[in-house]
Amino acid sequence: RAKGSGRNSYAVFTEAMRDQARRRADLEQALRAALKQGELSVQYQPIIDLTTGALSGFEALMRWNHPELGMVSPLEFIPIAEDTGLIVASGAWLLEEAATQLAQWRSERPAGAPPVHMSVNVSVRQLRNAALVDVVRDVLQRTGLPADALWLELTESGVFEDLDLSLATLRELRELGVVLCIDDFGTGYSSLTYLRQFPASIVKIDRSFVSGIGVNPDDEAIVRTVIAMAHALGQQVVAEGIETSEHRDWLRRQGCDFGQGYLYSPPRPAQAQRSWIVEQQSAHASGLT
Ligand code: C2E
Ligand code: MG
Ligand code: MG
Ligand code: MG
Predict the structure, then answer these.
(1) Residue whose C-alpha is closest to residue 61's, from 268, 274, 271
(2) Whose CA is nearest to atom 37 of ligand 1?
């Protein structure tokens, strides 16, 4: 490397870092006002029962439409919301919003159709906030939903980091009757000891493994093993990121319980998802799926 280029790349590096720090500070500032200003919204992605092909429920995913920057990815703003503690208020808002939407959709289901559930992502920061159990209890009471209609998704990396800190709250939530899910399973550094202690009844396999189906025998082996292990522990499995019919068919053959992904539907606003539900219902009624 030529002399002097080190200094140059250092200059570029710090500039990039400064831009990044500035964007982050801007976003942090804007996020403080976003909830009040109605910039946050929720999109819903269907979760399918792979055994029957029927709709099982939805995952609620937060969206932020910044007035100047446009849509900001949750991968960028959720960590900021967590670091600043804003996730506690916005998470409570999302729970209320998603549960209210679910109660409405359940009331519109035709008689005899299996009741649908709502899956909501909960960050560790929310879990370690003393109010979470009360927030969940209140939401259930206000909406009249049975507790098992509400699934809470906790990422493996977050919770297992310090499981002892979260365990009491997790047990309280479970006593309420809500369904606990381990999200993004396989992406963290958790050991089987942690898995055994975590009172979850659902394991969600991260889509980085699902995308290897039909391509990478190692990914296939991992998915097959996670399904077998979860079933042996009495847990059910959701596969994320199903993008092709090949993914779906392979997962069905392995006995995977549920799936979600672009093959079925991307996350969409409630209004748009509603027509999908109706379509799916009539397809089902006429034996098309
Ligand atoms: P996640 O909980 O694992 O959510 C699944 C992500 O995969 C979503 O990204 C979804 O849009 C995307 N996805 C679904 N199906 C497919 C597919 O077939 N192919 C591909 N390529 N992607 C698919 P999204 O909405 O960008 O959310 C990213 C992450 O941000 C979520 O991962 C979750 O960890 C976090 N997040 C989103 N909303 C919330 C929230 O309200 N609270 C918290 N704490 N975290 C949230
Ligand atoms: Mg999730
Ligand atoms: Mg996930
Ligand atoms: Mg994931």
Answers:
(1) 268
(2) 61
- Tokens 């710090």, residue? 14
Question: In angstroms, rounded to a whole number, what is the distance separating the alpha carbons of residues 29 and 232?
Answer: 47
- At residue 204, what is the residue type? K
**Nearest alpha carbon, ligand 1 atom 17:** 241
Task: Give the Å distance between the CA of 204 and the centre of ligand 3.
Answer: 6
Q: Nearest ligand, CA of residue 238? A: 3
77 C-beta neighbours (distance < 10 Å), count: 24
Residue 255 structure tokens: 């006995």
Q: What is the pTM of this model?
A: 0.92
Which two tokens mark 50? 């792979």
Residue minimizing CA distance to atom 20 of ligand 1: 241
Residue type, 34: A
Ligand nearest to the CA of 260: 1
Over residues 209-243, the pLDDT tens digits come to: 999 999 999 999 999 999 999 999 999 999 999 99
Residue 264 CB neighbours (<10 A): 18
